[in-house]
Structure formats: C-alpha cells, structure tokens
C-alpha cells in the first residue's frame, strides 16, 4: 500500500466547492478567472523568496504551467489541452498525462496514464446536488509510477489540504488493504468545511468575503510546497485545522493582502502538536501572486 500513501500525499493536499471545474456559470471544465495568474513566489522560514510557478495563457485559457525547484532550475512543465474551452487533458513533459471526462455539467473522472498509454490511477466523483460529496480513488496498476504520483501531487489535491494533512491521510491509507479508498466532503454554503477519511479530517473555517483565485481550478498540479487554499471554495479560509478523532494537532491561520477582490500575498502561521498537550513547533511561510 506504499503507492496509496504516495498517492494521497499527492492528491489530498488541494481543493473545489462545485467540482464541475466551472467559473461564473461557464461550462464544466472551463476556468476563466477575472484575474490571470502570471507568477507565484514562495518563501519558507530562513530562506529567501523564490519563483515557484510561471503561468502562460492562450487568450482566456491556461496554456501551460512551469514549475521550478528551489535552486531556480525547471522542475517540469504541464501543457493544457482543450476541446473548445473545456479542459480535457494535461500532459507533463516526460509524457505522463491526465484525462478529464464530464457528465453533463459535472466533472465525472480524472484518469492518469503512463507514456505508453497504460491507465494507472483514477479519481471518480460523486455528487450531492451540485457539490462533490465523495471522491473514490481507484488504482489500476500494482506499481504506480512515481511520475504519475508527481502529477497528482501537483494536482487539485495539492490545494485541498496542507502537506501535513496529506500525511495524515497517507498514514491512514498505508494501513488499508483495499485497492481503492473514499474521501468525504462537507460544505458550509459555497465553501469547503472538511475533507474526511474515517476518523481523520482536514477542516476549514473563518472564510473571508474575497474571491479565491483558484476557485474551480483543479488540474493535476501543486508539488512539494502545497497550496493550502481549497479550489473547492469560493472564498479564502482564515483557518485550517487537522483532527484525529477529537484531537486537533495541526493548525494554520491565514492572513491576506488583497488587490481588489483577489489575494496577492498569503501568509500562513502554522502550529503543530505531536501526540501531546502542547504545540511542539510553529513556523510561517508566505505565498506571493503576480497577475497579468
């Protein structure tokens, strides 16, 4: 089950409120924000700010995203392929790719393939009305390639929950004996309130009234430095906490600087408690967003 551990540490770090991959009433699979991201910078404790992502656009559509290592070298580039305005495929430079399928006005499945066309992994979406209620993650290969895992890690799951939250789910998955698992989603109006798996959950609260720039944008992206802003949510959360049963052991408080209705700086203050009553350590990191 090691591969499932890696999977969830890729898939669950990211985020969607109406997971139809729509924006402002557009067709499912269409992402047309009012502001276009150009570059994303990150700064970790005791380090200088670095370029993390560079976005290229073809008019109103995301054409590609290039990801950078901390030393400034290119990690990988993902190209976005459309049928009209609807996203249908994301192809990574090494040849691995993900395909999106839709059922009427909702995203139905995301399938991950190796360069030779072998299906390795699949996300299956289920709904309660317009909102995603569960996502079933199904393996199709006994030894999923690490490049597939990297694509998932950069993906919408990377915006669902934090890196620490992903570890929680990964640990749970590592103890399972099945080839599939189910994530459960709960909401408060237009915003995600929790993602849960058995007794463990990642929870969001204290949303603001400003626009989340990643709302309904969930391609297969976001790697080791995960966004902790859910693309499932219309607004930006002020707090995120991770629970194991009734015990809260990971808390993140967010503060934002805005340009009009959208954030340009996201500051995250993190506290972590490892199996005791006191928080063991804390740190702060910052994300800065440039728009076209």
Structure description:
The radius of gyration is 18 Å and the shape is globular. The strands form two sheets. Strands 2-3-4-5-6-7-8-9-10-12-13-14-15-16-17-18 form a 16-stranded antiparallel barrel. The protein has a two-stranded antiparallel ribbon with strand order 1-11. Residues 1-26, 155-162 and 219-228 have low confidence and may be disordered. It has one domain (2-291): Porin (Beta Barrel), CATH 2.40.160. Helices cover 10% and strands 49% of the residues. The protein has three helices and 18 strands. The chain is mainly beta and 292 residues long. α1 packs parallel to α2 (146-153) and α1 packs antiparallel against α3 (163-174).
Topology:
Elements: H1 2-11, E1 13-14, E2 37-43, E3 50-58, E4 61-68, E5 74-83, E6 86-92, E7 97-103, E8 106-113, E9 119-128, E10 131-139, H2 146-153, E11 157-160, H3 163-174, E12 180-188, E13 191-197, E14 200-205, E15 239-244, E16 247-259, E17 262-272, E18 281-291
Antiparallel strand pairs: 1-11, 2-3, 2-18, 3-4, 4-5, 5-6, 6-7, 7-8, 8-9, 9-10, 10-12, 12-13, 13-14, 14-15, 15-16, 16-17, 17-18
Helix pairs in contact: 1-2, 1-3
Number of helical regions:
3
What pattern of helices and strands is seen along the backbone?
HEEEEEEEEEEHEHEEEEEEE
Q: What fold name goes in the CATH topology slot?
A: Porin
The portion of residues forming beta strands comes to over 45%
Tell me the quaternary state. single chain
Give the mean pLDDT: 76
Distance between the termini: 43 Å
Number of strands: 18
Largest sheet: 16 strands, antiparallel, barrel
- CATH first level: Mainly Beta
Task: Write down the overall geometry.
Answer: globular
Named CATH architecture: Beta Barrel
Helix content: 10-25%
| Strand order, sheet with most strands | 2-3-4-5-6-7-8-9-10-12-13-14-15-16-17-18
- Output the radius of gyration: 18 Å
Q: List low-confidence stretches.
A: 1-26, 155-162, 219-228
User: Which secondary-structure class do the elements indicate?
Assistant: mainly beta
Structural domain tally: 1
């Amino acid at each position: 089950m090691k591969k499932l551990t890696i999977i969830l540490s890729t898939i669950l770090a990211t985020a969607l409120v109406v997971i139809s991959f729509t924006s402002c009433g557009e067709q499912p699979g269409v992402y047309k924000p009012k502001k276009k991201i150009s570059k994303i910078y990150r700064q970790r404790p005791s380090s200088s700010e670095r370029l993390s992502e560079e976005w290229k656009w073809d008019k109103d559509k995301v054409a590609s995203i290039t990801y950078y290592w901390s030393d400034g070298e290119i990690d990988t580039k993902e190209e976005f392929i459309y049928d009209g305005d609807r996203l249908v495929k994301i192809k990574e430079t090494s040849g691995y790719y993900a395909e999106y399928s839709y059922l009427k006005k909702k995203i139905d499945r995301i399938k991950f393939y190796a360069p030779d066309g072998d299906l390795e992994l699949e996300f299956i979406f289920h709904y309660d009305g317009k909102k995603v209620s569960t996502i079933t993650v199904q393996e199709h290969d006994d030894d999923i390639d690490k490049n597939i895992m990297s694509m998932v890690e950069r993906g919408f799951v990377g915006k669902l929950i934090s890196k620490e939250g992903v570890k929680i789910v990964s640990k749970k998955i590592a103890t399972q004996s099945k080839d599939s698992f189910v994530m459960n989603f709960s909401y408060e109006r237009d915003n995600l309130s929790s993602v849960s798996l058995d007794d463990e959950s990642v929870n969001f609260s204290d949303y603001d009234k400003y626009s989340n720039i990643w709302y309904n944008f969930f391609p297969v992206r976001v790697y080791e430095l995960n966004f902790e802003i859910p693309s499932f949510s219309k607004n930006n959360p002020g707090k995120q906490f991770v629970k194991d049963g009734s015990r809260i052991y990971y808390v993140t408080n967010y503060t934002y600087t805005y340009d009009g209705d959208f954030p340009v700086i996201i500051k995250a203050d993190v506290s972590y408690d490892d199996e005791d009553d006191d928080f063991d350590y804390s740190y702060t990191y910052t994300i800065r967003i440039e728009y076209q």
